[in-house]
Each structure stands twice: as structure tokens, then as C-alpha cells.
Specification:
Three copies of one chain form a homotrimer. Chain A is mostly beta strands. Helices cover 0% and strands 27% of the residues of chain A. Chain A has no helices and 22 strands. Chain A has a nine-stranded mixed beta sheet with strand order 1-4-7-10-13-16-19-21-22, with no helix packed on it. The radius of gyration of chain A is 15 Å and the shape is globular. Chains in contact: A-B, A-C, B-C. At the A-C interface, strand 14 of A face loops of C.
């Protein structure tokens, strides 16, 4: 994943940022990237080639998103998220990075998510801190993911289990 | 439902689009429509009279929304959604249309949602692809709807069941 | 909580509102408040000192938010929400105020949420109408909260129970 995570630098004409999107100057955008309206892309974010950031998303500082990944409307990615190539993230998916999210928590150390190549995360899923979602895994719509999802597995439910816990 | 789905064409003064909303020119808006800030209304969408689109929503291309329907903050509707009249859709509700949402999926065929007149969908609900929600049905807040909801029924839980599975 | 809910009036230079945020003129903002892009702050809202409203949020009219509280991306708060001091509200959290959310409901009487000081509400949680979340309580990510959460308690799951129902 690492190699692809550093997109070629491109000229302004090689990607598309909507007028009502906010992309920090220190972000690096690959060729063919599209950022839809009302989304933010933070400082030092790397977006690989052809990444699509849907509307009303927040991509935290220093996140890396691999080539061909598509993130739909309303998603939240914390700082330093690591998202592979050709990952699908459905609308209103929420990632997290803090197990004890109190204001003024002095023990805070961020546990950002890792999503491996070609995984798929269904609409409205919530992913707890420090989770890794394996290659080509599928997380069902509305799942609340509380432990790592192995490569190729399908997890859903609240809490999410493999095949929903055999239902 | 079908008749009401084609709103009368109106002059620009008969509806209200916030300065920070994006409404495609090919969308048709009925009298009294309001589109709140930071929302998008896609190509060829039909919004019936007095439809209200809350803030930070995405209404996919070619969707049809019946007269009097209210959609609250943060909702996502995929392409070709069919929403009846006087439907209530709470905040951060997510509809879907793709059972196998992988990037580059060649078997993709969209299964947009159908919501019949006067149904009510609670906040934060997630609706799986191809679902029909019947007339005057109620989907509870936070429900994950995995099968059709009959007219007049109340479904909630994850997965959503009638009356929450008799809890 | 009440005292802190009326922030000192401040000059325009003492808080920060992003260019692409919508804050009503009748809102009162304390010193050090930040409102991020694509968010709305309604009429007569009171934001205490150092409150942070993340991106793509909606803060309903006449809500009161205590000093030091942080609300992350994509949250929805209905009218007259009462949020204490130093509360943490994670991304894509949805509060509600209407038990029978039908269009044209004549029996509608709002039941806005109350969140006491130092509580923490995890990402993607959904809070049903009329709920009180007690001081320093924690609501887990993805929880659907259907009853009051006592002070200091931890609730999660759908429906949310204390310690997830002893799982």
C-alpha cells in the first residue's frame, strides 16, 4: 500500500475541487481526484489517483487514501487514517480514533483506522478506534465494528460479527 | 403516487434555494420548495410542492420526491430514489442502492429505495438496497432495515423487526 | 449548568466563524468559540466560551451549549437542546425531539435532549426524544439510546444498555 500512498504531484488542471469544498494547501492530490461540495480535506492529506471524496465529508489531517478509493457523502475520517486502494466507503460512515473521548482527556493517544485494499464499508457503519479492516473484507450497512475484520470476511450487526453472528 | 411526482413547473420566485446549496439546472422544483444550506439536489430530480430538503443532504440524480415530504439534515438518497408524499425522513438517514458495493464491481445494478406516502423514518436509520417502506409505516430511530416494511407497520432495531422483535 | 449557559457577549474578533458557516445574528457566541465550515447555528442559540462546532453540523434554534463543549462533524441537535459544559459529542451523532415524527402531526410537542456536564457521546450514536444523559456518563459509538443514562454510567448497543447489557 505504501508506495501508492504517495500520489504523483499534479498540476491544478489534473484534479477537480468543487468551489464549495475546502482543501488545505498542504494536501497532495493525485491525477483525476474529485472533491465534491461541502467537504473538507485536511492538512498534509495524500489522495491517490482517481480518489473521489463525496459531498459533506471530513478527511482528517495527515490521512492517506490510496488510488481509486471512493468515499461517499457525509463520512468522517480522523487524523492519520490509512485507507488503501480501491476501497469503497459508503455514505455517512464514521471512523473514530479515541477510546476515551472526554474533553480535556490527558491520556489521549490517537488510534486511527487502517482499511486495506479493496475493502468495502457499508452505509452508516461506525468503526471503533484502532480497528483494522482487512483486504477485500466487507462491513455491512449499519454495522458497529468493535474488533478487527479479517481479510475477506463479512461483518455486520451491532456489535458486528462475522456473517452477523451466523444469523 | 406517480401523478404527484411530476410537480408543476414554477418560476424562480416560487421556491427557495439557499445561497450555499447546489441544485442542478435540470431539477424541477414545485411551488413552496425549500432547500437548506450545504445540500445538493442532483440532475433531473423532481421535488413536489412544499418539499423541504434540510441542510447537508444529498439527493441523487433522477430521484422523485412527493408533495409535502420533509427530509432533515444530513440524509443521503441514491439515484432514482422514489419517495412518496408527506413522508418524514429524520436527520442523518442513509438510503443505499448497491448490494455489492465494491469499487469497479461489474455486476452492479442499482436497487434504489421506494418509500410510500406518509411513512416516517427515524433519525439515523440505514435502509439496505431495494427496500420498500409501506404507506404510513414507521421506521424507528437508529434502525437498520434489511427487509421490506409493510404498510402501517413499525420496525426498529438492528436488524429491524416488527415492533423491534416484540421486545 | 445554567449560569455558564449565558456566555459573555463578545466582540466579533473574539470568536471564529468560517466563511462557509451560517450563524444567525440572534445567536450569542462566547469568547474562543469556533464554528467550522458547512455548519449552521440557529436563532437565539447560546454557545459558551470555547465551544467548538465541527463541520457540517446543525444546531437548532434556542439551543444552549455550555463552555468547553466540543461537537464534531455532522451532528444534528434539535431546537432547544440543552448541552452542559465540557461535553464531548462525537461525529455524526443525531439527537431527536419528536416521538411521532409524521408530517402534519398535530400532537407534536417537542422533547429536546438534555446532556449534563462532562458527558461523552460516541460517534454515530442516535438519541431518542426526551432523553437525559447524566453527568460524566459515556454513550458508546453507534449506540441507540432509548432511555435516560444515569450519571457516570456507560451505555452502548441497540438498544443501548448499561455496559451493553453485560456482554
Amino acid at each position: 500500500m505504501a508506495g501508492a500512498m504517495v500520489p504523483e504531484m499534479t498540476t491544478a488542471r489534473e484534479f477537480t475541487i468543487h468551489q464549495y469544498a475546502v482543501v488545505r494547501r498542504t494536501a497532495s492530490l493525485g491525477r483525476g481526484v474529485i472533491v465534491y461540495p461541502f467537504s473538507q480535506v485536511g492538512e498534509a492529506v495524500l489522495l491517490g489517483e482517481r480518489v473521489v471524496i463525496g459531498s459533506n465529508c471530513y478527511i482528517g489531517d495527515a490521512s492517506m487514501i490510496g488510488a481509486g478509493t471512493r468515499i461517499q457523502h457525509g463520512c468522517f475520517l480522523p487524523k492519520r487514517s490509512r485507507i488503501g486502494e480501491r476501497v469503497f466507503i459508503g455514505p455517512n460512515v464514521t471512523f473514530t480514533d479515541d477510546r476515551r473521548p472526554y474533553v480535556g482527556n490527558r491520556d489521549y493517544h490517537a488510534q486511527p483506522p487502517v482499511v486495506e485494499d479493496e475493502a468495502s464499508i457499508g452505509a452508516g457503519a461506525v468503526i471503533l478506534p484502532g480497528i483494522t479492516i482487512g483486504k477485500h473484507a466487507m462491513v455491512g450497512a449499519g454495522a458497529v465494528v468493535v474488533r478487527d475484520v479479517p481479510a475477506g470476511a463479512t461483518y455486520y450487526g451491532n456489535p458486528a460479527k462475522e456473517n452477523g453472528g451466523k444469523r
